[in-house]
Design brief:
This protein is an alpha/beta fold and 246 residues long. It has 2 domains: 77 residues, Nucleotidyltransferase, domain 5; 122 residues, Nucleotidyltransferase, domain 5 (2-Layer Sandwich), CATH 3.30.420. 35% of the residues lie in helices and 25% in strands. The strands form 2 sheets. Strands 6-9-8-7-10-11 form a 6-stranded mixed beta sheet. Helix 6 links the parallel strand 10 and strand 11. The longest helix has 28 residues. It starts with a strand and ends with a helix.
Length: 246
C-alpha cells in the first residue's frame, strides 16, 4: 500500500492507495511541530510499502521523516520541483514554483490530455495553465476565501468572523450575511473573471479543473468550472510514484 501525504498550510491529507485505487483518505489539521497521536490512530492496519510526500510547510519535513521511519520503517520520498514531471516549465525561476501547483497541473494533464486551467482553492487560491503540449505556463496566486474573511475580522474593529458558505441571496440583510455575500459572490466573480481572461489569452478551449477545500462550494456557482477533482494532488503523488519509483 502506498501512503501519499499532502502537507498544506491548513490541512494535511493522507491517501492510502492499493495500486491506482484510493482505498482510504483522511485530513488532519496541519501543526508546525509533530505528527499527532490523533493522526496515528487513523492509520489503516494494512502494511504500507512506500511513503511519498508533498509539503509546503518545510518545518514539518523532519517530523514526517521521523514518523515514516518509526511507524513504517521506510524513508519517505519528498517530491519537489527537481523531479521529472515530463513537463516543459515556463516559470521563472522554476525552483520558486510551489510543488502543490506543479503536482495538480501534472495530475490534470495526465488525466485529461488536453489544455487545462487548474484551480486549487485552499488557504491561498492558485489558478494555473498546463497545455495539451505539456507546457506549464504559470498562473495566478490570490488569497483564499477564508484568508479574506480572517483579514476582515482581524483588521477591522466591528466586523465579525463569519462562516464561509453560499448565501441565500446576494443582498445581505445583516452584517454577517453581507460579509458572506461579499466574500462568496465576490470570489465567484474573481474566479470566473480570471478563468475567462486566461482562456482568452490562450486562444483555445481549455478544461477547467477545480480542487482544494473550497472547490465544491465555489463550483456550485461558477459558470467556468467543468469538473471538481477532490484528490487531484494525491493523484499527482501516486502518478509520480508509479512512473518514477515502481
Amino acid at each position: 500500500m502506498l501512503l501519499a501525504i499532502d502537507i498544506g498550510n491548513t490541512f494535511t491529507k493522507f491517501g492510502f492507495y492499493e495500486n491506482d485505487f484510493l482505498a482510504y483518505r483522511f485530513n488532519a489539521q496541519t501543526t508546525r511541530r509533530q505528527i499527532s497521536d490523533e493522526i496515528l490512530s487513523q492509520i489503516p492496519t494494512q502494511s504500507v510499502s512506500a511513503v511519498i510526500i508533498s509539503s509546503v510547510v518545510p518545518e514539518l519535513n523532519n517530523a514526517c521523516l521521523e514518523f515514516s521511519e518509526k511507524h513504517f520503517n521506510l524513508k519517505p520520498i519528498f517530491v519537489d520541483a527537481s523531479f521529472d514531471f515530463n513537463l516543459k516549465i515556463n516559470y521563472f525561476p522554476p525552483e520558486n514554483l510551489g510543488i502543490d501547483r506543479l503536482l495538480v497541473a501534472f495530475a490534470a494533464i495526465e488525466k485529461y490530455s488536453e489544455t487545462c486551467v487548474v484551480c486549487d482553492f485552499g488557504t491561498a487560491t492558485t489558478i494555473d495553465v498546463v497545455t495539451s503540449k505539456r507546457e506549464y505556463l504559470g498562473g495566478i496566486i490570490a488569497p483564499g476565501m477564508n484568508t479574506m474573511s480572517e483579514s476582515l475580522f482581524l483588521n477591522t474593529a466591528k466586523l465579525p468572523r463569519i462562516t464561509i458558505e453560499k448565501p441565500a441571496s446576494v443582498i445581505g440583510d445583516s452584517t454577517a450575511k453581507a460579509i458572506q455575500s461579499g466574500i462568496y459572490f465576490g470570489y465567484i466573480g474573481l474566479v470566473d473573471g480570471i478563468i475567462e481572461r486566461m482562456i482568452s489569452e490562450l486562444g483555445e478551449k481549455a478544461k477547467v479543473v477545480a480542487t482544494g477545500g473550497f472547490a465544491n462550494l465555489i463550483a456550485q456557482s461558477s459558470i467556468k468550472i467543468d469538473v471538481v477533482e477532490d484528490n487531484l494532488l494525491l493523484e499527482g503523488l501516486r502518478l509520480i510514484y508509479e512512473k518514477r519509483f515502481r
